[in-house]
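quick one: S-adenosylmethionine bound model?
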Amino acid sequence: MDLMKEELERQVAASLEAQPKLLPFIAELLADVDALGSSPGAVVNLLRSLGLPGAMILDVGCGKGAISVNVARELGWHAHGVDAFQPFIDHATQTASENGVASLCEFTCDDMRKVVRSGKSYDVVIYAAHGPLLDAVPCVDLLRMCVRAGGYIVIDDGFLRENVDSVPDGYRSYRRHAETIIQMTAHGDRLIREDVYSAEERNTIDGQTTASIRARAEVLAARHPEAAPMFLEYIQNQERECQILLDIHVPATWILQRQDRR
Ligand SMILES: C[S@@+](CC[C@H](N)C(=O)[O-])C[C@H]1O[C@@H](n2cnc3c(N)ncnc32)[C@H](O)[C@@H]1O
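yep, here:
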């Protein structure tokens, strides 16, 4: 495998708290989970408030397409979802058909780091449940390049709790609230909406997700006993991630409006 493909696979796996060797099993492990860390309902409500009939969104790292399909179904907007994991793209395409919105959705398997630099411009770009994954700090530098002047950047993620003093490896790019806002608006874009959720509320969703993954892992382990420790490690990583987020993170969704200095 070439080095770039290998690096991309590592990034995809890491974004799912997995080792690359687990990727062949990921689609089955996550078969009962539609949204991989985001809340499509919350994102749709946020977008609805913009009142942009027929808008075109770019959903980067769209996973199984939960946000794009919901946006198309609920708002009638057009969605372009990009994800580097082909099984998720296949699933998203099928879900769009099942929901009667195939004509509004396009899903492509590609590296989001390339897509955000492609020079195409959308009404809205959505960056959901990724943490600081794009290779720029802050990643809003790149996201804003995909939207037209006056277009919108939606970030579904969160910030560090105020009282946290020790942050585990892998979470160090998170900032406290004030610094997060400074980073996001560093280009003069306008923060037009912020919704903050309770970590406990988000954790309940994650707990349900972990339970369904555990059930799938047990079925897989019976079929592939040699790989059972790998499945167990994955479940433990998921539980660790839930606990870390509960301890250090406040979930939030933001809408920024791109402003261009004259
Ligand atoms: C935590 S999931 C979030 C998925 C989706 N936004 C959601 O909320 O359901 C992260 C996703 O990013 C994708 N991903 C990671 N690195 C990527 C890259 N460089 N290009 C495209 N997709 C990537 C993974 O395949 C995975 O589907």
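The first strand starts at residue 56 and ends at 60.
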